[in-house]
Amino acid sequence: MDNLLCDEVWLSSSENSLEVCAPIIALKNYENEEFQEAFALSLEKELSYMHEPHYSNYLHSNNLIFPRCKVIQWFIKCGSRFNLSFGTVFWAVNYLDRFVCICQCHDWKYWMLELLAIACLSIATKFNEVSGLSLHEIQMEDLDYSFQSNVILRMEMILLKALGWRLNSVTSYSFGEMLACNVQNLGPHLYENLISPVTELLFQATLDQKMLEFRPSIVGISALWCTLDQLFPSISNTYIAYIMRLLNQSQKDDIIKCHELMGTQTSLCSENYHCGPLSPTTVLLNTTRIYDS
């Protein structure tokens, strides 16, 4: 796993990004019907964009845990190198997991995963970015194999058909972003204080096979909860209690489990990496510890 470090700017906030002595954050009216409707719709929609239950067991039985992590790290590095939106990277991960789960191949080779990863990222950028990347550009970022354009385009078509052309996926990041935006009185600086560590936790979660058992909404809420606990503890319990009222008991139980697991990983990362600004470097270092453990 050579050359895992990447540019420091993609996830970075300003140099004062972790200051928490900001004004107390007020929450929007709990009767925000627009948010509640959007949240409920996303909860319903996410079921159509998820891998099957026991997907983690399939990955483990086919020795795909480490190769999958390596591919996702490549997504993260490409996101940093080409300044892609976070949503694009999470979509690429979603396409990868859904296809691998649908395919159920029992003889995966790493070159097959790399070809699939290129197709996933290419489609995600075409769907979500103003300016797409050429297939040549995508393959410049530390791949073990190189593929001709016509081979990649064929793989893209196979991927699109397998996914039923359903690309507007609901991901843990889309939930995290939605929930963070629902906190009122966040200027650009305070919002960045909140969403940046949430995003880092979500990147870490994509590489932790234990997180695959949870729905994207559960992971997104847990990441926000962990971040509020650390940065804005005065409103954390109140806001999470409000979100909990919008969920059923099974979802609440899963959030408790996921939050505890994510909190443990966050503590491990904090003990070993006392860094200031957040960056892809810290994401990659921290997540390496997760899947190596």
Could you please describe the fold and organization of this structure?
It holds the Pfam family Cyclin_N. Belongs to the cyclin family. Keywords: Cell cycle, Cell division, Cyclin. The protein has 293 residues and is mainly α. It has helices spanning 33-46, 55-61, 65-81, 86-103, 110-128, 135-138, 149-162, 172-181, 188-206, 216-231, 233-244, 249-272, 280-292. Helix 8 (172-181) crosses helix 10 (216-231), helix 10 (216-231) packs antiparallel against helix 11 (233-244) and helix 10 (216-231) crosses helix 12 (249-272). The longest helix has 24 residues, at 249-272. It is globular, with a radius of gyration of 19 Å.
Give the helices and strands, then pairings.
Blueprint lengths: L32 H14 L8 H7 L3 H17 L4 H18 L6 H19 L6 H4 L10 H14 L9 H10 L6 H19 L9 H16 L1 H12 L4 H24 L7 H13 L1
Structural descriptors:
single chain; 293 residues; mainly alpha; 13 helices; globular; disordered N terminus; cell division; cyclin; cell cycle; Cyclin-like_dom; Cyclin-like_sf
